[in-house]
Amino acid sequence: MDFDRYDRIRPIRWMGDHLALLDQRKLPFVVEDVACGDSDAVAAAIRDLVVRGAPAIGISAAWGAVLAGRGIEAGDGADALSKLAPALDRLQAARPTAVNLMWALARVRRALRVAGENWREVLECEARAIEAEDLAANRHMGALGAALIEPGSGVLTHCNTGSLATAGFGTALGVIRAGVAEGRIARVFASETRPWLQGARLTVWELLQDGIPATLVGDGAVAHLIKGGQVQWVIVGADRICANGDVANKIGTYSHAIVARHHGARLMVVAPSSTVDMATASGDDIEIEMRDPAELLSVGGVRMVAEGVQAWNPVFDVTPAGLVDAIVTERGVVHQPDANRMAALFGAQAGV
Ligand SMILES: CSC[C@@H](O)[C@@H](O)C(=O)COP(=O)(O)O
Q1: Closest Cα to atom 9 of ligand 1
Q2: How far apart are the C-alpha atoms of 146 and 140, rounded to whole Å?
Q3: Is 26 annotated as a binding residue?
Q4: What percent of the chain has pLDDT over 70?
Q5: What is the 75 CA–ligand 1 centroid distance (Å)?
Q6: Residues 352, 101: Cα–Cα separation, whole Å
Q7: What's the CA-to-centroid distance between 97 and ligand 1, angstroms?
Q8: Atom of ligand 1 at shortest distance to CA of 198?
């Protein structure tokens, strides 16, 4: 796998005194960083979608904790943890659905609890490790997921799960990159992902950077596309995978999953184990983020809808495990997931 060709974008860069985040609100036409100098700036960047995608927000929060540590004096890790608690809580509250955020901050807290005087280095090592492990997981999942795809297949992905959403390479988009590189994938479709257009603005841009031909489809065109037989696999990421295999992901994933099952296409969910939350029994227990109705009422900042209407804007949905054909993680693949098969791979993994 030629990672120099297929893994060039880095949305999160630690600069020693601040965190540089590629501003995903402005892509694809403006490629510009937001410089975060303290942990509240990182929390705001997560909330406002400067950085987004489950693994990327977890990694950013870990670096946010490092920045918070710059602002305090503490004798050891436990002392630092008590002083950092409010800042860590604010980072954690930035978005509710992606468990990677809670998972990364739980790791930070655990590391601090046992750290001595060198707690600042411990904190930085932890952030670096969370980022490096994510990149390694993505590259491994790329190979595992691509192996499931028969040569000549068409694939459809939703939202953005690429380098922009992770430490690099991507989850579902990593599988697509690997599948294209191995000659297994003949056609790539990306659904636009209303209202924030992660598919249209971000996924298409990433694929173009790699020279991978892609076709954009409207979210409402997906049933018609799949019915026509051009898609063998729908490949998506996840924000949280429950103990029973239910998957929370970008709004619209559930309807893609129903359509795929109805027409005989298969659904692959690709996510690192940091997205698996064995402490949450089923999708009914997941908090689904509701965002500002203004995101639905406007396109590119231009109001499209008459004044006076209400809008309902949940930004994630839950796909029941029964509609999922494979969950690909760096630990291995769970086929036809259910509670027993999830437990066999993840045991009672603490989640958060
Ligand atoms: C590897 S990213 C996986 C998911 O986080 C992704 O599919 C998604 O739903 C992102 O939502 P977003 O609201 O853009 O953060």
Answers
A1: 250
A2: 10
A3: no
A4: 99
A5: 38
A6: 9
A7: 10
A8: 14
Q: Which of 57, 160, 247, 324 to mutate to test the pocket of ligand 1 (most atoms within 8 A of CB)?
A: 160
Give residue ranges with CB within 6 A of ligand 1: 52-55, 98, 159, 161, 165-166, 171, 198, 237-239, 249-250, 315
More confident residue, 192 or 349: 192
Which stretches of the chain are DSSP H helices? 3-6, 39-47, 54-70, 77-92, 99-113, 119-146, 172-181, 204-209, 222-227, 253-263, 294-297, 339-346
List residues bridging with 12 in a β-sheet.
21
Starting at the earlier edge strand, list the strands of the sheet with 12-14.
12-14, 19-22, 33-36
CA-based radius of gyration for the chain? 20
Tokens 């459809």 — which residue? 156
Ligand-binding annotation for 138, yes or no, is no
Closest atom of ligand 1 to 172 CA is 1
> Predicted ipTM?
0.99
Consult the annotation and say whether 341 binds a ligand: no
Residue whose CA is closest, atom 7 of ligand 1? Answer: 237
* Confidence class for position 351, pLDDT limits 50, 70, 90: low
Residue 352 has pLDDT above 70, yes or no: no
Give 5-19 pLDDT, tens digit per residue.
Answer: 888 889 999 999 999
Residue 314 has pLDDT above 70, yes or no: yes
How many whole angstroms separate alpha carbon 171 and alpha carbon 118?
A: 34
Check whether 332 has a pLDDT greater than 70.
yes
* Angstrom distances, CA of residue 121 to CA of 74, 118, 156, 212, 223: 13, 6, 42, 40, 51
Residue-wise pLDDT for 73-120, tens only, equals 999 999 999 999 999 999 999 999 999 999 999 999 999 999 999 999
CA of 50 to the centre of ligand 1 (A): 13
CA–CA gap between residue 41 and residue 112 (Å, rounded): 22
95 is in an annotated binding site: yes
Provide the pLDDT confidence category of residue 2 given band limits of 50, 70 and 90. confident
Residues 103, 276: contact at Cβ < 8 Å?
no
Residue type, 57: I
Domains annotated for the chain, with CATH where assigned, are: 3-138 (1.20.120.420), 139-346 (3.40.50.10470)
